[in-house]
Amino acid sequence: MKQDQLKAWQPDQFDRFVRILEQDQLNHAYLFSGFFGSLEMAQFLAKSLFCTDKVGVLPCEKCRNCKLIEQGEFPDVTLIKPVNQVIKTERIRELVGQFSQAGIESQQQVFIIEQAEKMHPNAANSLLKVIEEPQSEVYIFFLTSDEEKMLPTIRSRTQIFHFTKQEEKLILLLEQMGLVKKKATLLAQFSQSRAEAEKLANQASFWTLVDESERLLTGLLAKKKKVICKLLN
Ligand SMILES: [Zn+2]
């Protein structure tokens, strides 16, 4: 997602971060709660650190570094996702090894951790140690859809930003993708992120499930109505 889209989806958060960049006050650890633009914001901030042709504080989106970050292929920006619903402690330990190396070379590193609530407490604690090192040039973005599930130690040591669902904008986007209003509204209410909505919009199996659930529900309601009528008579 390019920055003009990000700005359109999360205008307040975008403006806040531009101000933070202008004041050169980017923190080393953030907790982004909600999936609507959070990954894109983390990537945008990573670009602002590595872009070779910035316009003021804004990344150009055109240089090699910006493009590689956008594609998730820039070596100093690591994206971590859970595998089989878990973020393994070993994976995090491996990273922490990289951090200390990074410290020696005084090289900037960005880590974006998706569904960070799935991290084991041991893994989280070793990460927190890294953040607290004063010489650290490591930036960590914890992304979660449910900040209540995040460890209190992470919540207390990070700055929290909320990326709430933009339902109206999502409905509009889904309609532009060809969905009728009813389906677009249903999917916008159901989805936890824009990416999920876009994926499900074109998935026939999802819509079959929706139809079947609707039939089931209608059937159950009719039955319940009958029972109530019987009771009343
Ligand atoms: Zn650039």
Question: Nutshell version of this structure?
Answer:
With 233 residues, the chain is α/β, with parallel strands linked by helices.
Give the key terms.
binds zinc ion; globular; 233 residues; 11 helices; single chain; alpha/beta; 5 strands; five-stranded parallel beta sheet
Largest β sheet strand count, sense and barrel closure: 5 strands, parallel
Mean pLDDT: 87
Side by side, the strands of the main sheet go: 2-3-4-1-5
Element pattern in H and E: HHEHHEHEHEHEHHHH
Rg: 22 Å
Question: In DSSP terms, counting alpha (H) and pi (I) runs of 4 or more, how many helices?
Answer: 11
Structural class: alpha/beta
Bound small molecules, by name, code or SMILES, are: zinc ion
Shape: globular
* Ends apart, CA distance between termini: 60 Å
- Low-confidence region ranges: none
